[in-house]
């Protein structure tokens, strides 16, 4: 029953008019990777601070100050880094596009030969190959975009640095704040606060892993536990570092 409904949905999706509509849309750059990156890093770094501070014997006030200061500063830093990275990808794409445009203008026959060899390598021969070359090189925009994809392996997705930066920062702050919430409740003891923080952080890691698997059609539990394991490893390292420093160095934990 499930296979039949899936097959019918795919048939509808692959009707000629639906295929044409889908292919005419310019591919969008994915925000999923930005959200996952920000969420995981926000939770890992914040809970690492919680673990290190608890291991060193610091008070709840110190944990909150360190945690929220890091949340904003590191979140902004990460957003800026992602902005620059996406902007660099966009600038590289535009640079290559300008280069190909200039090459087509200066040495069109050489660029046609590149198209010919690219599609010959895909198995096209003779008259069919020549029709493909004529069709592609007859449309200036298609010619350039074909070279970007086939020669340089560049995606046609639109790069939006500001949107990527905002997505990373938002996920970093929202998810990263979760492990700090138990330290806002004064009646709880420090061990209880830390235990609650650890549970919330683990839940965030697991949920992020599951959401990522839903987007990329991966096994839910495996992805959830994998992300949980990675985040938990970072927390254990931070706790051990804080504990060792507290044992080796005379630290005022008040």
Layout of helices and strands:
Layout (H helix, E strand, L loop, with lengths): L1 H12 L2 H9 L7 H24 L4 H47 L1 H13 L5 H12 L2 H11 L10 H17 L12 H27 L3 H29 L6
Helix pairs in contact: 3-4, 3-8, 3-9, 3-10, 4-5, 4-7, 4-8, 5-6, 9-10
Describe this structure in words.
The protein is mainly α and 254 residues long. The protein has one domain. The protein has helices spanning 2-13, 16-24, 32-55, 60-106, 108-120, 126-137, 140-150, 161-177, 190-216, 220-248. The N and C termini lie far apart (63 Å). The mean pLDDT is 83.
Assembly type: single chain
Distance between the termini: 63 Å
Give the overall shape: elongated
Strand content: under 5%
The proportion of residues forming helix, as a percent range, comes to over 70%
Order of helices and strands, N to C? HHHHHHHHHH
Total number of domains: 1
Cα radius of gyration in angstroms: 26 Å
Number of strands: 0
Overall pLDDT: 83
Q: What kind of sheet is the major sheet?
A: none
Helical segment tally? 10
Low-confidence stretches: none
Protein name: VIT1/CCC1 transporter family protein
Transmembrane segments: 56-73, 162-188, 194-215, 227-245
InterPro entries: Ccc1_fam
Main location: membrane
What's the short story on this structure?
The protein is mainly alpha-helical. The chain is 79% helix and 0% strand.
Features:
VIT1/CCC1 transporter family protein, 0% strand, mainly alpha, elongated, 254 residues
